[in-house]
Amino acid sequence: MTASHEIETRLRETAERLLGEKKVDLFLGHEKASLPLRTTPLFLTVAADAARLAWNPFCSPNLAVYLPRLFRAPADAREAKTAPPRPTVGVVLKGCDARSVVALIQEHQLPRDKLVLVGIACPGMVDARKAERVLGLHEALGAGEDAHGNIRAVVEDGTEVTLRREQVLADVCLECRAPTPSICDIVLGAAVEPREAHVARRQAEELESRPADARWAHFQQMMSKCIRCNACRQACPMCYCKDCLLDQTRPRWVGAGTDFSDVAIYHLARAFHMAGRCTACGACARACPMGLDVRLLVRKLNLEVEDLYGYRPGEAVDATPPLSAFAMDDPQEFLTEP
Amino acid sequence: MSQTQIVPEAAAPRTWEPKVVAFLCNWCSYAGADLAGVSRIQYPPNIRIIRVPCSGRINPVFLLRALQSGADAVLVSGCHPGDCHYISGNLAARRKFTLFRDLLKYVGIEPERVQFTWVSASEGGRFASVVEKVVEQARKLGPNTKLVKRA
Fold first, then answer.
1. How does pLDDT run across A55-70, given as a tens digit for each residue?
2. What number is the ipTM of this complex?
3. Dihedral-angle region of residue A258 (phi above 0 means left; psi in -120 to 50 means alpha; beta otherwise)
4. Beta carbons within 10 angstroms of residue A123's beta carbon
5. Which of A46, A239, A287, A338 is spaced 20 to 30 A from B8 at the CA atom?
């Protein structure tokens, strides 16, 4: 594992060079946020500002979410005439973010030739909520990383608390299969060992072993906390549709309120839309103000896609997503026969 | 009230009868249902048919919406694999429905509430027996309470 500050220095140099040499018009990265344990997205257009870029264990935001809107196709011929030329964009990508970019290129949402992808081999990002839970009644005023990769937090009375890294890593990071980005033009840091998605599988199997009514009760209990703010959808890099089915009012497919039936349908529909597309970046879970496990359903669907169709999202640009493909001999045991 | 709402039967029905919404593709299954009618094959009247261009046209949200609006079961039927009017619409649909059914099962909704089958234009008899089976299973499950929206 390369030390974060070394990567940070090289990242700043890279961004400065790319912007200075006019290789990119815009550079997306992370910046120190006003709160500890977090960072905020940074949009750079001037080389001189490159020193604002940060790389630390809190760079969890998935910057891929900002990309599709920069390359949205003009609505009609008139708009095409007046549209400004498409920018060249440099972007910092962790393993998961790179998977999102791969999936977006697959779905023709991003032009590869307009992107300069700066990948960073990612040792996993801190889940700020987990860290806050571990700190308990103490409030972090500042946070950093020690030489062993553990998290050091300064709390309100000035004492320093060390949090074990594994203890506060985000759930998605604990089972990241590709922490080292694959398609990038520039990769910073030494490759990081991939992990396996055992936890997801165990969790799915555990839930499946319960009777149907218990599963429903579990789903109901968890999702009834949902306030339908749609933050999980907004945060998702794969949710780029201009007009979302869930927003349509004529007909209104899904009610906008918190009636449980609408909440359930929202989460079922969202999860289904993500099947074979979710790149497991955890943006939805981070965005959820109620702290719901919004990935519950899509985790299961992605395992299903892998088992049935041998596909993992975001691995190869030239692969066909499983729901855009078919085979004559796809399984169909579920069919109703007279 | 939107146009997709299923109007409940006047007053409280004395005995509960399952309501099944069937999405049938225009080219095979709808014609199969028509053949069943023309041939005077008897099948349960619990079914409400919605004609769609192709089974590939069906968004799973349609099925959720039907269940929410009070359907006790949903049936989707298209052309047999290889016979799709649009070459491969039903094959794409098959993958979709495989995953969708697993998803419903995972959250604890009885998978029998959402049924899929293939019926060709010449299979009036098959259509009737599929409907019989679906209605019988829906009756066994009882009223759909999990997803239905109470006003």
1. 999 999 999 999 999 9
2. 0.90
3. alpha
4. 22
5. A338
For Cα atoms B9, B13, B18, give the angle at the middle one, nearest 5 degrees: 75
Nearest to A272 among B82, B103, B118 (CB): B103
Domains of chain B, start order: 20-140 (3.40.50)
Structure tokens given for A259: 């009636």
Mutation target for B interface from A241, A302, A326: give the one with most B CBs within 10 A: A326
Which residue of B88, B117, B147 is in closest CB contact with A264? B147
Q: Which two tokens stand for residue A255?
A: 């009610």
Question: Which single residue is written with the structure tokens 């919004």?
Answer: A294
Residue B44: burial class (beta carbons within 10 Å; 0-12, 13-18, 19+): middle
B149 is written with which tokens?
A: 């929206």
Q: Compute the average pLDDT of residues B77-88.
A: 95
Say if CB B120 and CB B83 are below 8 A apart.
yes
Length of chain A: 338
Q: Do B106 and A265 count as a contact with CB atoms less than 8 A apart?
A: no
- Nearest chain A residue to B59 by CA distance is A269
